[in-house]
Amino acid sequence: MKLSIIIPYHNTIELTKTLLAVLTPQLTNECELCIVDDDVDTHELDKYKNSNVQIIHHKKNSGCAGKPRNTGIDNTKGKYIAFIDSDDMISNDYIKIIIDKINTKEFDYCYMSWQYNGSTKVIITDQPPKDNNCVWNCIYKRETIGKERFNEQMKIAEDYDFNIRVRKGVKENITEVLYSYNNAREGSLFNTYGEV
User: Fold this and answer.
1) Domain tally for the chain?
2) Is 8 helix (H, G, I), strand (E, B) or coil?
């Protein structure tokens, strides 16, 4: 298994179904998807289960994305890990371009380019902007993550805390725009607590 994609899910069903309509057709035997339902008990997502997709239901809402992400790390086996937020969107060639990069270069972490709300593009040729500490803009080597995990007590800045511990070693970049970040949704962690 070359790539594990982890989605922490909480109350974004319509946006998540739209995301999965683009993501699931891209899955191959080299890639697995793990959706961690954080105490919503949305069995509507169970219909996506198959040999490449697992759905994990938490029994207690953690109130942050760190716990479901940790659950995803602990229950997947890909050589590399990518995170997608359940209210965001990815390109039609998201998996293909990541797998091509994995097959071409050995790296510890790799930034990908993205866009905000489907419009403003951020092309990464070296480092991401300093105001973006998210984990969805990066692919991580599982071996480099090692035993490090997200701090489950943090509701904000847990991405930054995780990244300063695991973004080390050989870095690569993907200049193609693979991710569309939705920072406009009311009720998101971003709009509830600030940058996460």
Assistant:
1) 1
2) strand
